[in-house]
From TrEMBL:
One of its GO terms (molecular function) is xenobiotic transmembrane transporter activity. Residues 9-392 form the Major facilitator superfamily (MFS) profile domain. The keyword DNA repair does not apply. GO terms for cellular component: plasma membrane. It comes from the Bacteria. The keyword Transcription regulation does not apply. GO terms for biological process: xenobiotic detoxification by transmembrane export across the plasma membrane. This is Bcr/CflA family efflux MFS transporter. It is a multi-pass membrane protein. Belongs to the major facilitator superfamily. Bcr/CmlA family. Keywords: Cell membrane, Membrane, Transmembrane, Transmembrane helix, Transport. Its main location: membrane. PROSITE patterns: MFS. It comes from Larkinella rosea.
Amino acid sequence: MSKKTYFFLILILGSLTALGPFSIDMYLPGFPAIAKDLHTTAAKVSLSLSGFFIGISAGQLLYGPLLDRFGRKKPLYIGLIVYILASAGCAFTASIDGLIVMRVIQAIGSCAAAVASVAMVRDLFPVKDNAKVFSLLLLVVGASPMIAPTVGGYVTAAFGWQAVFVILMGMGIAILLAVFFWLPASYKPDKSLSLKPKPILLNFWSVLREPQFYTYALTSSIAFSGLFAYVSGSPILFMEVFHTDEKVYGWIFAFLSVGFIGASQVNTLLLRSYRSEQIVSVALICQVIVALTFLTVAMSGWLTLSITIVFLFLFLCCIGFTNPNAAALSLAPFAKNAGSASAVMGALQMGMGTLISIFISLFEVPSAVPMVLGMAGSATLALLVLLTGRRKISHRVEVEQDADSALIH
C-alpha cells in the first residue's frame, strides 16, 4: 500500500468515525439558546444528547449484520442518507420533543459510519497494525472536539443554533460523496449470513462468548463512558456553574481535547516498546487515581475553573491511551465477522454512554459532582472488569496449551 493510498484511507475512515463526535460536540454551546427558543431547560435539552446515544447504541447492532451480509458500502450509503435528512429535521424542529426524536434518527444514520469505519480497519490493515491505525483515526477524530464546539459557539452566536445542523447536513453530503468516489470496497458480501433474528443473535452471542472480546470491549466501553460523562456535564458545568459564554466554552473544550488527542498519538510511539495489554493496565490505573482525586476535591467544594480544567485534561489523557489499545485487543480474535464484532463493541460503548448521560441529566441543580461521580465510577468499574476478565483469558490460554500438548504427545 502506497503512502498516498494509506493517507487517503485514514482520512476517509477518520471522517466517517468523526461524524458522530461532530454531531455530539458541535451543538453543545447552543444548549442555553435551544432551551430558550424551545421554552425548556438545559437539563431537558441534554436529553437530546441521551437520545443520540440511544440511537447510536441500537443502530450499531442493526448495521453490524448488514455490513457483513451486503458488504461495507451499501449499508453505509443508506445510513449517510438517513443522517442527512435527520440533520435537516433537527434544524427545522419547533419543539424539544421533536428535536429529541430527530436526534435519535440522526444517530441511527451516523452509526453506520462508525461501525463501517471500525470494521474496515480490520479489513484493510494487518492485525498487528490495528492499534496504530486506531490511534491515527483518533487523530482525525480528535479534531472534532477541538473544532466542533469552537465553531459551534461562533455559529450559534452569529446565526443561531439551527445553523449548526445545516452545517452537519453539509458534512454528511461531503462524506457520502467521498465514500462513493474514493473508498474501496474492502469486504466481499457474505451471502451465507442470514438476516433472520435467530442467526443474527447467535452470531452476536458467538462474539460475546470470546473472553478476549468481552474483557477488553467491556473495559473500553465502561472506561470510555467517562468521556460521555464529561461531554454531557460540561455545558452545564462551564456555562452555568462557572458562567462562561458559548465562545469561551468552545475554546475550553478544544483545549481539553488536546489531552485526548495527544495521548492517542503518544500511544503509537509506546507501542514500539510495549504491548497493548501493558498500556491499557497502566493507563486505567492512572485514570482511577485521577478520577477519585477529582471527586474528592469536587465534594470538598474546592473546585475552581483552572483546577477543573487540569483534572479533566489528565482524565482525557488516560482515555487517549486506554481506548485505542482496548479496541484493537477486542477485535483481534475476529476476521470473518469483524462487522458484527465492531457493532457489538460500539453498542456496548454507546449503551454505557447513554446510561451515564441520563444519570447526569437527572440532576436539575447545576453542580460538578454528578459529572465527576460518573467519571470516577466508570474508571473504577472498568479496572475491576479488566482484572477479572484477564484471569479468564489466562485460564483459557492455559487450558488450550495443555490440550495442544496432550494432542502432540
